[in-house]
Design a protein that fits this description.
CATH architecture: 2-Layer Sandwich
Number of strands: 7
Strand order of the largest sheet: 2-1-3-7-6-5-4
CATH superfamily: CorA soluble domain-like
Number of helices: 9
Order of helices and strands: EEHEHHEEEEHHHHHH
Radius of gyration: 35 Å
Distance between the termini: 66 Å
Number of domains: 1
Largest sheet: 7 strands, mixed
Length: 327
Amino acid sequence: MDTEPMHNGLIHAYLLDGQGGGRRLSWSEVGNWAPGQGRLWLHFDYTDTEAREWIGNGAGLEPIVAEALLTEETRPRTTSIGEGLLIALRGVNLNPESQPEDMVSIRLWVEDSRIVSTRKRRLISVGDLCRQLDSGRGPATCADLLVELTDLLVWRMSDTVESFEDTIDELEDRVVAGSSGSLRFDLAMLRKQTITLRRYLSPEREALARLLVEKVEWISEANRIRLREVSDRLLRHIEDIDAVRERAAVTQEELMSQMSEQLNSRMYVLSIIAAIFLPLGFFTGLLGINVGGIPGADNPGAFLIFSGLLLVTVVIQLIVFRWKKWL
């Protein structure tokens, strides 16, 4: 994972050796850098005041480029400006106590000899790239670094997409087993996560597609072939997310159908009970009024006779219900 920024907002500065390795530079060495020394990668926390000042006034960037590197809100895109590329990408948020769909953005200005990137929150993919450079197994050029970063961003999405698939498998099994519990909440949360992630990945694929067709000399054909593979893998992730979202919708419909069926079954039982006791309640209410002339008022056996008539009424009702196939 990338480290905490230094006092001037610089998270790290690498001078690529062209062989897959990179040497970390101090801020004073960055100030003395010249293109002939090698390709430079500067990574900043754009929320730092000194970093914003340097990017805006000391980096020699076009105002539109500096503004894009420092903007708070952005969407994935690729824009060609002169011989450089202004790129905004997003990666899944794998930081502790965070949600994967709350994606982390990284903004890059890429030239043949220099990359300036900015972020607000940490990206594990950037840390992976730093470890590659420290071990001598990283990219050799700025184009290679750009391709490797996009590859790592998409590769880090794989675990998140697979976790979505595992979650929907579990939820489907719970629906089939008839275990409701927190199913409605879990399904709603899964649909929310997939919809949010899908909303960010679509423009990211467009940004990669745009990157493929940009005519800049420092991106080789080999880089474009690898970018095409990264774009295809991102497309598969999008298709998998769409499949999970559709399965979640179908599972939610099945859950609602089961709950409706259970409710109908309970309402049916209550309706039968109400139908049985409705005439019984009518007779008992009729004979319970406090007026003269009630039949059997002076007959000691009237209660047993009346109870027998009520029992016969229930039996007749059950026979009628059975004949009507209501039972």
